[in-house]
Write a structure and sequence with these properties.
- This protein is an all-alpha fold and about 140 residues long.
- The chain is built from four helices and no strands.
- It has a single domain, classed as 23S rRNA-intervening sequence (de novo design (two linked rop proteins)).
- Helix 1 runs antiparallel to helix 2, helix 1 packs antiparallel against helix 4 and helix 3 runs antiparallel to helix 4.
- The longest helix is centred in the middle third of the chain and has 27 residues.
């Protein structure tokens, strides 16, 4: 039978993104164990958990609210990536670049799903142009 969220492509993409978050976190220095590493992993985990929790038999507005929390957690991981880059914690930036690209795609997917669920509730969403999957970051 399974759970509703297990069938969602956006949830599967969030799991793949979480794998990248864990891979990046594993490369961080020991001094960031209880700070940046922990924060990034918790935020990445929160993305998948909010998608799952929001998929239960709730109102569209409530599900959209959980998707909004997933988006905020995603943005938190992106902010962590910028800090990692700025602090020069990784010599090879390949994982950071990949995570940033995947975050852009995941943000667009989450935004699209939220818009589809609650199209008349503009206060629940940001402009779709906020997430450009074509932009590059200087990692």
């Amino acid at each position: 039978m399974g759970f509703k969220f297990e069938k969602l492509d956006v949830w599967k993409a969030a799991l793949d993104y979480l794998d990248l978050v864990y891979a990046i976190a594993a490369l961080l220095p020991k001094s960031e164990e209880y700070n940046l590493k922990s924060q990034m992993v918790r935020a990445g985990t929160s993305i998948t958990l909010n998608i799952a929790e929001g998929s239960t038999g709730q109102t569209d507005a409530e599900q959209a609210r959980f998707l909004g929390m997933a988006i905020r957690s995603l943005l938190e991981t992106v902010a962590c990536q910028h800090i990692i880059n700025r602090r020069d914690y990784l010599t090879d930036k390949t994982l950071l670049r990949q995570a940033y690209k995947d975050a852009q795609i995941l943000a667009a997917q989450l935004q699209s799903m939220r818009k589809a669920i609650a199209p008349d509730q503009s206060w629940l969403r940001e402009s779709p142009t906020d997430y450009n999957t074509e932009s590059e970051v200087e990692f």
